[in-house]
Every structure is written in structure tokens, then in C-alpha cells.
Amino acid sequence: MKNIPTLYEWAGDIKTFENLFAQFYDKVLKDDLLSEVFKNMSPEHVKHVANFVAEVFGGGQFYTLENNGSHSKMIGQHIGKMLSEEKRQRWVHLLLQTADEIGLKSDPEFRSAFVGYIEWGTRLAVINSQLTENPMDTNEPMPKWGWGETGGPYDPD
Length: 157
Ligand code: HEM
Known about the structure:
Heme binds at residue 48. It holds the Pfam family Bac_globin. This protein is 56% helix and 0% strand. It is an all-alpha fold. The site of protoporphyrin IX containing FE (HEM) has 23 residues, from helix 3, helix 4, helix 7 and helix 8.
């Protein structure tokens, strides 16, 4: 494959990410373990998380510009939340279930990159949630996620 798309381009567009997280948080709010954690989430939460992940996946500055966000600001949302490994696992499980239900690209290459990011991001969220102060400088750049070892999407040729 000559022109390798970004993860964002391969997944679709911003509506793909908004749909994924809208359906996901519907499940989260009905979940016995996670509903308590998210019961006070802001009305913008779904859009902010969709924008954040879309930006990390190479879609442009959705979170940075539209939400005046930064990696540090996002990390700050998890400080002191005391998230457990059990809650993290449920979060991951529901997100992957939603990904299948909405028909998110399911080629092995894309899912490998997607799961890699989700593992990284959720494990960091748990670690940061045990802290009382945000360790991250406000000027730290947003993370960028790519295809990793697979090098690009599934290509039958
Ligand atoms: C890749 C993993 C994750 C990403 C990209 C992410 C992203 C975000 C973002 C962007 C916000 C800010 C939302 C806003 O500005 O309104 C946020 C807030 C939050 N996140 Fe995460 N998060 C991740 C993992 C988790 C996990 C695993 C949990 C819990 C099990 C969690 C719990 C929360 C909570 C409780 C808030 C605050 C919600 C509120 O009250 O408005 N996050 N997250």
C-alpha cells in the first residue's frame, strides 16, 4: 500500500468517533460497575473523548482547538478518581464490544493499533487516578498513535 492512511482516515471521519463514544457511554451509564463513576459526567464528555481520540489518531486538532484541550487537561480529569483495575477492564470490554456493534473497522491491523492505544491510555488513566496532583506540564504535546508494528491497514495484496 503506497499511501498509508492515518488511523483516523482508515476508521472513517469524526462522526465515526462520535458514534463510537456515544454508543459506548450509553452502555457505561447502564453498567453496574461504571455508572457510578460517570454519573456526574459533563454533557460534553462524549464529544470531548471522541475529539481527543480522533486527534491522537491523526485526525487534526479536534480536542486542542475545539475544546481548548491538551494532554495535560485530559490527564487532569482523571486525577484523584481512584480508578481500579476492575473498572479499567470493564471500560475496555464495553468499548471493544461497542466497536464491534457499530461496525468499526475490524481488520487485524487496525484493531491491533486500536487496542494498543486503549491499553496504554486506560492503564495511564488508572495510574494517574491514584495521584492528587497533575504531574503533566500544560505544554506537553498531545500523544500521537500510528499503526505500530503492522505498518498499515490490512492489504490482501
Ligand atoms: C484511552 C483511555 C481514555 C481516554 C482517551 C479518556 C479521555 C478522557 C477525556 C478527554 C476526559 C475529559 C472529558 C471532558 O473534558 O469533559 C475524560 C474524563 C474522565 N474520564 Fe477518561 N479517558 C480514558 C480512560 C478512562 C477510564 C478507563 C476511566 C474509568 C474507568 C475514565 C474515567 C473518566 C472520568 C470519571 C472522567 C471525568 C468525567 C466527568 O465527570 O466529566 N477514563 N477522559
